[in-house]
Amino acid sequence: MERRSNIRLLMYPAIILALASCASPEIVEEPFEPTTSHADYRDGLVAMEIAETAAGTAWIRAADRALTDAFLVTIPVREIAYFDPLRPDAVGFRFAALRGQRIEIILEIENGAETRMFADLFRVEPGELDPFPQVASYSEHLNRLEFEPRRDGEYLLRLQPELLRGGRYTVSIRTVPALSFPVEGHGVEDILSVFGDPRDGGARRHEGVDIFAPRGTPVLAVAPGVVRSVGTRDRGGLVVSITDPERQLVYYYAHLDEQLSTRGTLVQPGDVIGTVGNTGNAVTTPPHLHFGVYERRWNAIDPWNFLFPYRAQPPEVRGNPTAVGSPARVVSDSVSLDGVAGRAPVTIDADEPVLVEGARGTSYRIHVPRLAMSGYVPLESIGF
Question: Are residues 245 and 277 in the same domain?
Answer without folding.
Answer: yes
